[in-house]
Amino acid sequence: MRVAAVDQGTTSTRCLVVEDGGTWSIAGSLRHRQHHPAPGWVEHDPQELLQNIEEVLASAGPVDAIAISNQGESCLAWDAETGEPLSPVIVWQDSRTAEALSRCSPSAEQRSKEVCGLPLDPYFSASKLAWLMENVPAVSSALASGRLRLGTTDAFFLNRLCGSFVTDLATASRTGLLDLKSCTWSAEMCELHRVPMQCLPEIAAVDAGFGMFGDTPVKVSIVDQQAALYGHNCRKPGDCKITFGTGAFLLALADGKRPPESELLPTIAWRRRQEEKPTFAIEGGVYDAGAALEWAHRIGLYSALEELDAFEGPSALSRGIIFVPALSGLGAPYWDRQAAPLFIGMDHSTDRRDMVRAVLEGIAILTVGLIEAASKVTALSPTISIDGGLSRSTYFARFLASASNRSITVPSMYELTALGLAEFCGVDVDAFRTSAVTFTPDGSVTAADHQFFAKGVDRARAWRR
After folding, report:
1. Under 8 Å between Cβ of 464 and 341
2. Which of 263, 344, 426, 446 has CA atoms 20 to 30 A from the CA of 316?
3. How far apart are CA 53 and CA 321, in angstroms?
4. Helix/strand/coil for 199
5. Region class of 345: left (phi > 0), else alpha (psi between -120 and 50), else beta
6. Among residues 426, 420, 7, 392, which one has the least CA distance to residue 234?
7. Which residues touch 440 (CB under 8 Å, ≥6 apart)?
């Protein structure tokens, strides 16, 4: 079987061709523009994203099936008749709705957690869709004429590529509009956010089949992080993976039922067509991982990826140099969009190598916070599997193992989102899992002082205030 696995992410669209027997290749990869029309705003051009998907699919050549992963919470509005976008894509990083959500009552916040498992945070789709309803005249006009469609990016892509208006259950669980108990759209949450429920897509299983793109079936659609979870071969409660892309996202499988309320979030991992009940997971994210490194590169702290491993001597943190990577605020378990990025502990001897090392360590320590929060909800496996760009830094993986006191495994096949998509389609992926590198907690990197770093986080949260 030959599958085109399309990973439509925050900064790029990639297509891998994955085949039975352990063969894979990158068919195409295209970056897209990031638009920041106002402070805290992050937008994409939906037509550019769609065009990039079509281009990388064309590069894949003949395949038996297509699978697509999406950004998760990023969303938009479009015309049901013409398919034309009525808005830009408001990206998951966007915080424009923070002030509006701050005016919601504590009871509304609690009710949101009870129904959909999510706090009232601008990270999720619900308040972004509400913003479109209130601020884009074309959206309200389309609603009045019965032509409005609202949804996450996957529903737009599938609508344009296949003619279907569908999302999968895992993606729906990231909106803030899903009732986790019934696995249907919640009329109560839609009313809270003033989102017309009739404009939302149908909800389906991850492998339900979503129509045809030309002569090829689109068999699978799911959130990128959940696809990676499946690609990491996480199947048992406590199995855990962390993907280091633009952000760092931890997902750990729950024990078969909705996880209890905690510092992290309950979410749907997936629901397959033949399964009666969904698989639940807990999720938490660091908003700026790869994004923090891109910023560090842009301001000249390093020039080549090889420099992210060439460190000598004790860690920056053990020498009192701390960076809190809160360029987009802090995610779980803080949920503080007002936190500011912060360097502390520098003196006349501090150089750019110390600073970029502190950036790496800061990302790792915030990730350790996610691991510790997850371990309070479920008994995590002693080994955690990681992927994404940062996983290729030996220094980072060793530091994370030491700081978390857990073994960190880096699979040799690092395109885990694509691997999960292919496996959902039915590709035999056993050959891809034959080798991995594991970093144990007793590595040579100095273990992190969590309380010392926590003081830095407190200062980052107070800085903008």
Report:
1. no
2. 263
3. 42
4. helix
5. left
6. 420
7. 401, 407
With beta carbons less than 8 A apart as the criterion, state whether 325 and 364 touch.
no
SS3 178: strand
| Across 21-25, 52-56, 63-67, 406-410, least confident range | 21-25
Element (H, E) at 193: helix 187-193
Are residues 155 and 167 in contact, defined by beta-carbon separation less than 8 angstroms? yes
Which residues, in sequence order, are bridge partners of residue 384?
A: 408
Least confident of 127-131, 166-170, 261-265, 281-285: 261-265
Query: What HEC string does 107-146 produce?
Result: HHHHHHHHHHCCCCCCCCHHHHHHHHHHHCHHHHHHHHCC
- Pick the range with the lowest mean pLDDT from 127-136, 145-154, 175-184, 456-465: 456-465
Distance of alpha carbon 376 from alpha carbon 378, whole angstroms: 6
Tell me the C-alpha distance between 304 and 286, whole Å: 23
Residue recorded with tokens 């009329």: 187
Residue 196 DSSP SS3: coil
Q: Which of the four pLDDT bands, split at 50, 70 and 90, describes residue 465? A: low
Domain 2-224 has CATH 3.30.420.40: yes
Say whether 78 sits in a helix, a strand or coil: strand
Cα dihedral angle (75, 85, 137, 198), rounded to 10 degrees?
-60
On whether the pTM is more than 0.70, the answer is yes
DSSP assigned state of 11: S
Convert the pLDDT of each residue in 69-98 to its tens digit: 999 999 999 999 999 999 999 999 899 999
Query: What tens digit of pLDDT does each residue of 286-320 get?
Result: 989 999 999 999 999 999 888 888 788 888 898 99
Q: Strand 240-244 vs strand 383-388: parallel, antiparallel, or unpaired?
A: parallel
Q: How many helices (H) and strands (E) does the chain have?
A: 14, 23
Query: Do residues 278 and 183 lie in contact, with contact meaning Cβ atoms separated by under 8 Å?
Result: yes
Provide φ and ψ at 344, rounded to 5°.
Answer: -140, 160
Tell how strand 166-168 and strand 202-204 pair up: parallel
